[in-house]
Amino acid sequence: xxxxxxxxxxxxxxxxxxxxxxxxxxxxxxxxxxxxxxxxxxxxxxxxxxxxxxxxxxxxxxxxxxxxxxxxxxxxxxxxxxxxxxxxxxxxxxxxxxxxxxxxxxxxxxxxxxxxxxxxxxxxxxxxxxxxxxxxxxxxxxxxxxxxxxxxxxxxxxxxxxxxxxxxxxxxxxxxxxxxxxxxxxxxxxxxxxxxxxxxxxxxxxxxxxxxxxxxxxxxxxxxxxxxxxxxxxxxxxxxxxxxxxx
Length: 247
What we know:
Largest sheet: 5 strands, mixed
Radius of gyration: 34 Å
Number of helices: 9
Strand content: 5-15%
CATH class of the domain at 36-146: Alpha Beta
Shape: elongated
Structural class: alpha/beta
Strand order of the largest sheet: 1-3-2-4-5
């Protein structure tokens, strides 16, 4: 009889262990999903709703210290109705140019497409109070000129991606083709892109700030008056010459 109880006990233990092994990966994955990853393909999702986004790099010591705090903060995101996300700038260089990231780690708060840069202490309690007490309202939003959807960050994205393309091209050429070939291509690309940007800026400046000589409403009248004055002066000069000849 005792043997049956021991067998039943072992069977229950095996079932419990099997259930734990089956459920644990799901719970771990559920926790990981709370900290969302923003990429070049889904970054437009942060334009709706409320977000806290961290830009980091794996090699950055300050970023490494922030990671456990940021993960703990992400556990509270669902309760507060805030999406907590992160961006690895080494994997998403285009986003580092789009958001003009100049230091790491950089944290942004976004509410319905309006971005504000977080400058407070990097603790979980400070993050929670910043969102829960709406302290972000006291922070000036990022100018629309430097927003991720404006044309200036788009230019930074192109510059970042073109530099990466040149780096890859140079790396390939060092293993096969001559190295000077990549520098020639990069120089020509820089020259033509500079000319194109210069012409574009000239057209924009001429359109926004037209010349006063052509924008004055009485331009044609002033031209006619100038021509009449010039004829009068020429006529007077001719009369003086005729008088001198008669004398």
